[in-house]
Amino acid sequence: MTPAMKMYGKHRFPGKLFIVEGIDGSGKSTQIALLQKWLESEGYVTFFSEWNSSPLVREVTKRGKKKRMLTPMTFSLIHATDFADRTEHHIVPPLKSGALVLADRYIYTAFARDVARGVDPQWVRQMYQFAVKPTIGFYFKISLEEAMKRILGGRDAIKYYEAGMDLKITDDIEESFRVFQGRIIEEYEKMVAEFGLVVIDASMSIEEQQVQMRQIVSEALAGTKKTRIRKWLDLSTMVKKASRQ
Amino acid sequence: MARFEYYGKKGFPAVNLEELQGKLIVIEGTDGVGRSTHIGLLKQWLENNGHAVLDTGMTRSMLAGEGLKAAKVGHTLGWLTMSLFYATDFADRLENEMIPALRAGFIVLTDRYIFSPMARGLIRGADPDWIKGVFEFALKPDMVIYLRVGVQDLITRVIQNSGFNYWESGMDLHLGEDMYESFVEYQTRILREFDKMAGDYNFQTIETSPNIEEVFEQIKNRVEPIVQSRLPRPRTSPPAGIVNPH
């Protein structure tokens, strides 16, 4: 028979899962990239997975965004589909193998964005029940003003859906972005307690934030073997055993 | 009171259910049972009787239809992803095709609804409460016609029509030594799920036979009372505003 579906918090894997969350411009991607560099230099096998990157689904999402076909519900569902594929192919298998999986954005991104679009909070949480609960979820907390400064300085245009333009709050894209991202921050704030997210003050220097992150991750890794070494050892003993038989 | 309601408490944020006027009729059933034939016949009959009809069906959404078909080609699609892909396809069609048509007073005929994707997910290990929850934004239809067939009859039909294919045989589940054995086991399990849902969701079950006219006659009899109420009443006196010349 098919095995029972594993729900959030019920998975048991030898690997560990670290994820980062926060609004655009919070610096979370920089931080998780630095974390990965460090973990690899320490001898761990890491696997990086990014929001919206399933090879089976991402083209549908891209086209839907480009043609502005997505409504709050289909926006929510197509992202859940993408995430399901990544869970099945990119997150669960490496965790089973004992690797450290690092994810830039996770289910909390969906909870924040979809609820900010008017989707029912219970429904979207229920839908993502299949997700593996992260070992640690970091939330990079930053003020809307600071994030706006970073984004507007670095990019030519704010994207339609990131600004929540589909909600028709206002025709002014910058103002729409401000309102929509403000709602997203409110949702994140609620989730800190609900899901036990670890808050990092994203107004600190990059180095200070990274030191905090590494400290917290190394505590979580206490006792975790460095998979790269263990994997090769296992393989060689297996070969030896097999040749003896 | 709105004519329509969702299975769950909440549905589409921007949709006002009070505005929906038409009728929603679902044709469900396993692969190869003749759903599309009967939808074609039903549509013709309804249109001949003066009803505007929209027909739609699974994997036909503008948003996700092509992507879903493409994702099935490589045989790497997992059941979780498949279930949610179907839900996306369904949501897109419900919100952008079915609901606007209902608002305009159409009769909507849909080839499959939430029940086929739910059955497919359930036999692959989806938690029943989970999958029910995912699809609870669906509108409760006016009627669900379930075209039922036994596995043995189904085999004959499938061989005659298209032959066994990978997904309709549930090959991803590794149920049998070859496609035939897998098909029998897979379709048996699907039927079991449908039969379970028949009670929960108040299906109008019609046992199908090779006699298309006979089956269609039964479908017509079930559908007639629902669509009757949409026809204008026969007038017993001249409509207001028309002066009797005598």
Can you give me a brief rundown of this structure?
The complex is a heterodimer of chains A (about 240) and B (about 250). Chain A is an alpha/beta fold. Chain A has helices at about 30-40, 60-65, 70-95, 105-115, 120-125, 145-155, 175-195, 205-220, 225-245, and strands at about 15-20, 45-50, 100-105, 135-140, 200.
Round the Cα radius of gyration of chain B to an integer and report it: 20 Å
Strand content of chain B: 5-15%
- Reading off the top of the CATH hierarchy, the class of chain A is best stated as Alpha Beta
How far the N terminus sits from the C terminus of chain B, by CA atoms, comes to 43 Å
Please tell me the total number of domains of chain A: 1
Order of helix and strand elements from N to C terminus of chain A: EHEHHEHHEHHEHH
Instruction: Indicate the low-confidence ranges of chain B by residue numbers.
Output: none
Radius of gyration of chain A: 20 Å
CATH fold-level topology of chain A: Rossmann fold
Portion of residues in helices of chain B?
Answer: 40-55%
Total of helices of chain A: 9
Descriptive notes:
The complex is a heterodimer of chains A (245) and B (246). Chain A is 54% helix and 11% strand. With 245 residues, chain A is an alpha/beta fold. Chain A has one domain (16-244): Rossmann fold (3-Layer(aba) Sandwich). In chain A, α4 (107-116) crosses α7 (173-195). Chain B has 246 residues and is α/β, with parallel strands linked by helices. Chain B has a single domain (21-225), classed as P-loop containing nucleotide triphosphate hydrolases (Rossmann fold, 3-Layer(aba) Sandwich), CATH 3.40.50. Chain B is built from 8 helices and 5 strands, in the order βαβααβααβααβα. Chain B has helices spanning 35-48, 65-73, 79-103, 115-122, 128-134, 151-161, 179-200, 212-228, and strands at 23-29, 53-57, 107-111, 143-148, 204-207. Chain B has a 5-stranded parallel β-sheet, sandwiched between helices. At the A-B interface, α2, α3 and α5 of A face α2, α3 and α5 of B.
